[in-house]
């Protein structure tokens, strides 16, 4: 009887709707794994950059500190440092035209916040796919099961035989669609939760770095919250 069970039998014996549901679930699974793989690599990369971001403050001047962040334009910590420097320079050069309407602290805060928001949107891109797959795949699989059972019962009814050996095969094959739906949804949900935790860690480090940058560009020094000491860093 085992030869009657399996996804291949579901495909060979199913109608158009059953095959469409199977293809849809397989496509959703592939999309989920692609997103998980790509975003996991991003999280690993950004965590490494977050750990190395502290090297920025162990420098004599801003130019040296910036070089320690590397040349990678996708580095969010380097991007924030550049955003802060440009905002501070812009405020100094246009202060007379703005008639002191904007405080330097507010101006730099706005620039850093925009940079964080843009990176957050880029970091969270693709997670909607995992959320959608995780929430809809079980129901799509259940629909495939219900349709498969209906199709099997109609076939059995037309044959005029309803013995257990005739019913078990088609019904069991239809239930495989539910298992397939769960097999697609579970990795998507687990991947989503794992990536969200990783993104939260990266964003926490980025916000802390932005806070230090704000203090540096406004006061000319980074304030250490642990011992209230001030670490000077020459502007360059």
Helix-strand string: HHHHHHHEE
- What structural class do helix, strand and pairing data support? mainly alpha
Tally of helical runs: 7
Kindly state the percentage of residues in helix: over 70%
Mind describing the biggest β-sheet? 2 strands, antiparallel
State the distance separating the first and last CA atoms.
77 Å
Radius of gyration, in Å, reads: 28 Å
Number of strands: 2
- Note the beta-strand portion: under 5%
Strand order of the largest sheet: 1-2
Average of per-residue pLDDT values? 80
Q: Indicate the low-confidence ranges by residue numbers.
A: 1-5, 225-231
Give the CA-based shape.
rod-shaped
How are the secondary structure elements laid out?
Layout: H1 7-13, H2 16-52, H3 62-68, H4 76-98, H5 104-124, H6 127-159, H7 164-219, E1 221-223, E2 230-232
Antiparallel strand pairs: 1-2
Helix pairs in contact: 2-6, 2-7, 4-5, 4-7, 5-7, 6-7
């Amino acid at each position: 009887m085992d030869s009657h069970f399996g996804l291949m039998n579901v495909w060979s014996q199913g109608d158009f709707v059953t095959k469409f549901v199977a293809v849809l679930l397989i496509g959703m699974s592939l999309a989920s794994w692609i997103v998980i793989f790509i975003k996991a690599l991003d999280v690993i990369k950004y965590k490494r950059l977050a750990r190395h971001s502290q090297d920025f403050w162990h420098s004599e001047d801003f130019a040296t500190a910036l070089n320690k962040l590397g040349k990678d334009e996708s580095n969010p910590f380097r991007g924030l440092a550049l955003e802060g420097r440009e905002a501070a320079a812009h405020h100094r050069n246009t202060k007379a035209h703005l008639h002191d309407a904007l405080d330097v602290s507010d101006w730099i805060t706005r620039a850093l916040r925009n940079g964080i928001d843009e990176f957050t949107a880029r970091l969270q891109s693709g997670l909607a796919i995992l959320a959608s797959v995780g929430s809809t795949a079980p129901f799509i699989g259940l629909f495939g099961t219900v349709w498969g059972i209906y199709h099997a019962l109609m076939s059995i009814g037309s044959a005029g035989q309803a013995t257990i050996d005739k019913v078990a095969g088609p019904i069991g094959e239809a239930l495989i669609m539910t298992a397939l739906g769960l097999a697609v949804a579970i990795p998507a949900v687990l991947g989503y939760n794992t990536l969200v935790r990783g993104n939260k860690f990266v964003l926490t480090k980025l916000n802390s770095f932005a806070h230090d940058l704000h203090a540096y560009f406004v006061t000319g020094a980074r304030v250490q919250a642990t011992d209230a000491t001030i670490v000077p860093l020459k502007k360059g």
